[in-house]
Amino acid sequence: MIAIDNLKFDEKGLITAVVQDAQSKEVLTVAYMNKESLQKTIETGETWFYSRSRQELWHKGATSGNTQKVISIKTDCDQDALVVEVLPAGPACHNGTTSCFTEELLKNDQVGTVGIIPYLAEVIRTRESEMPEGAYTTYLFTEGIDKICKKVGEEATEVVIGAKNRDKKEVTWEAADLIYHLLVLLQEQKISVYDVLEVLVDRHQQKRASTKGN
């Protein structure tokens, strides 16, 4: 663990803080901290920043209620910038958006990202809530748990068959189908995808702790 005094603050006593959603990994905002606001962040477990325009400390969400629960704080190799992972209670941006980063300069839609999983989970949740006519997800929820379980089983079998046939294209395609139907199943059971990810994290941490102990 690095001490605050070992961080490299600039000539104005500030350090850049990149705030990131601890679950989705989406960058929410970029702000600045001084030693006092960083110390308050650590002590309270919620983000505090330093406003360069007002020249004062400010507690994120103090008036709006959109606080940010701090999960971790990391510094880079030069120790002159921070990544603050948080669980946000609401929008990060004063414009009311989840993230301050909404304007695109470049986007390559052909590059896959794990961010599609929480996005797809939210789409599925919305489908179950609104049940739009003609949507395949609506059909699955209408048919119920037996149909959903059957589809998960079918897609899992297709993945196995593709793997046995050494067909990478088929495995990739069927794995995508399996993930989608598994997300539908999780929603039907009212289990968050993040709950599943937390289990994976816990298992990994327990394994690391066990390895170190030996």
TrEMBL record:
Transmembrane segments: none annotated. GO terms for cellular component: cytoplasm. Residues 117-214 are annotated as: Phosphoribosyl-ATP pyrophosphohydrolase. GO terms for biological process: L-histidine biosynthetic process. It is found in: Cytoplasm. Pathway: Amino-acid biosynthesis; L-histidine biosynthesis; L-histidine from 5-phospho-alpha-D-ribose 1-diphosphate: step 3/9; Amino-acid biosynthesis; L-histidine biosynthesis; L-histidine from 5-phospho-alpha-D-ribose 1-diphosphate: step 2/9. Residues 30-102 form the Phosphoribosyl-AMP cyclohydrolase domain. InterPro entries: His_synth_HisIE, HisE, PRA-CH, PRib-ATP_PPHydrolase-like, PRib_AMP_CycHydrolase_dom, PRib_AMP_CycHydrolase_sf. It catalyses: 1-(5-phospho-beta-D-ribosyl)-5'-AMP + H2O = 1-(5-phospho-beta-D-ribosyl)-5-[(5-phospho-beta-D-ribosylamino)methylideneamino]imidazole-4-carboxamide; 1-(5-phospho-beta-D-ribosyl)-ATP + H2O = 1-(5-phospho-beta-D-ribosyl)-5'-AMP + diphosphate + H(+). Its EC number is 3.5.4.19, 3.6.1.31. One of its GO terms (molecular function) is phosphoribosyl-AMP cyclohydrolase activity. Residues 1-116 are annotated as: Phosphoribosyl-AMP cyclohydrolase. It holds the Pfam family PRA-PH. Its main location: cytoplasm. The keyword Acyltransferase does not apply. In the N-terminal section; belongs to the PRA-CH family. In the C-terminal section; belongs to the PRA-PH family. NCBIfam families: histidine_hisI (TIGR03188), PRK00051.1 (NF000768), PRK02759.1 (NF002747). This is Histidine biosynthesis bifunctional protein HisIE.
